[in-house]
Amino acid sequence: MATAPAALAPKPDHVPAELVVDFDYYNLPGGSDDPQAAWLAARPKTPVAWTPHNGGHWIASTPEAVFRFYRDWEHFSASELSIPKMGQEYLMIPNQVDPPLHGEYRRNIMPLFTPDAIEKMTRDVRELCVELIEEVLPRGECEFVMDFAFRFPLGIFMRMMGLPESDRMYLRKLVEKFADDPDPQVKAAAAAEMGEYIDRTIEDRIANPRDDATTRITRMTFEGRPYTRAEMRGTVRLLMAAGLDTVAGMLCLLAWHLATNPADGDYIRSKLGDDLAMQEIVQEFLRRYSLVSSSRVITQDYNYDGVTLKQGEMIMMPSAFFNLDEKRDNPQKVDFTRANKRHITFGSGTHACAGAILAREEMKVFLEEWLTRMPPVNLDPARPPILKAASINGATELWLKW
Ligand code: HEM
Asked: CATH homologous superfamily for 25-396?
């Protein structure tokens, strides 16, 4: 989402002038045409660089730097994830908790995401996917973001958490504001409203337990005591933030890719039913459409290659700078047969995505059902796509025709 330029932060004295770049991740040039290409075009030339935009922050620009900062939780804490910093009443659990406390919180949520748990959800995932496709199919066109991309993962999330379908659009708007709006006040207001919604749901499940993930969260314990309300809220809130915008953004990029690269659609069709080949296809899409640029706050002064990153400063680690490293062979080309599909689209280390199996399953089911049920799908030439480069890439508008 492009915004009017805000005031720039003054350069701190310890930042060498040659490391200062004009990098505004909310307004990356070309971001609405091809988000990943826009990230690459804006990549600073030095391994770390500093930008005065969005409160002033560091950017890791090489695969080595991105990887290192993801893994080093002692110097790079996830307790603050927003740039500009926004401060919160409560932490999103487990994403904003550093080790050693992180371990027990993470172990608590993992039973929601084991292969067995996901297998139980697979029928729901496929059922909803088919339902949404069949709804748009007779129309001959759709605006994919609204008609499909958000409805699918949000529908899965609502079923998993036991939330009423009628709240879907309301929640979607809140999530979008929180994720995409560069104004910290708008973000904070959206977060507060989500907090209230979650609180009401939690109170309801404590009084009226059901067979759903929200009820399970209300029964979790930490170091032998029951979760506080803030812990319950922080856990639900994270699952909501983590699973919606991400999958929705990825589905938009997949639908865009298929509409603009029909030969890739033909290739995937030829592999339907071959589970191993489908895993490779999903893996290559995850690499190419590197989605998330997470951030960390520096916990103590840190020397990286002679550059001092000061305690309290923020650093962004764009996954595109790892996945689309120019040392790889033609990194922007989707090549399902490439040998090295290694990526950090799900992060790396302590906080690596807990929902990765579910996310892969949603992507796979989408590809299978979309390519089986839809006739050839094209972009609508009258309404060009508006893609989105942000901390979570995706699309704002994607009109498709068939
Ligand atoms: C394509 C879709 C997805 C992508 C690209 C993605 C990406 C990520 C990334 C990069 C992180 C690490 C963030 C960091 O280190 O700051 C993360 C963490 C997490 N994700 Fe995902 N995610 C996706 C889908 C999901 C889904 C569907 C869920 C579950 C509903 C989920 C749940 C989580 C959780 C719980 C964490 C925090 C793990 C921890 O802190 O230990 N994600 N995800």
From this structure: Cytochrome P450 (1.10.630.10)
Name residue, tokens 């999530």. Answer: 175
Return the residue whose CA atom lies nearest to atom 17 of ligand 1. Answer: 353
The closest of 246, 225, 229, 224 to 91, measured between CA atoms, is 229
Q: Which atom of ligand 1 is nearest to the CA of 250?
A: 1
* Structural contact between residues 111 and 136, judged by C-beta atoms closer than 8 angstroms: no
Q: Which two tokens stand for residue 3?
A: 């915004």
- Residues with Cβ within 6 A of ligand 1? 78, 81, 94-95, 106, 109, 238-239, 242-243, 246-247, 250, 291-292, 294, 345-347, 351, 353-355, 358-359
Atom 16 of ligand 1: nearest residue by CA position: 294
* 50 in Cβ contact with 19 (< 8 Å): yes
Residue to substitute in 66, 353, 367, 391 for testing ligand 1 pocket (most ligand atoms within 8 angstroms of CB): 353
Atom of ligand 1 nearest to the CA of 95: 40
Alpha-carbon torsion angle 134, 138, 142, 146, nearest 10: -40
Residue ranges per domain, the chain? 25-396
How close is the Cα of 353 to the center of ligand 1, in Å?
A: 4
| CA end-to-end distance (rounded Å), the chain | 28
pLDDT values of the chain reduced to their tens digit, one per residue, 402 residues: 444 456 899 999 999 999 999 999 999 999 999 999 999 999 999 999 999 999 999 999 999 999 999 999 999 999 999 898 877 777 899 999 999 999 999 999 999 998 888 888 888 899 999 999 999 999 999 999 988 998 898 888 888 899 998 888 888 788 778 766 778 788 888 888 988 998 999 999 999 999 999 999 999 999 999 999 999 999 998 998 888 889 999 999 999 999 999 999 999 999 999 999 999 999 999 999 999 999 999 999 999 999 999 999 999 999 999 999 999 999 999 999 999 999 999 999 999 999 999 999 999 999 999 999 999 999 999 999 999 998 999 999 999 999
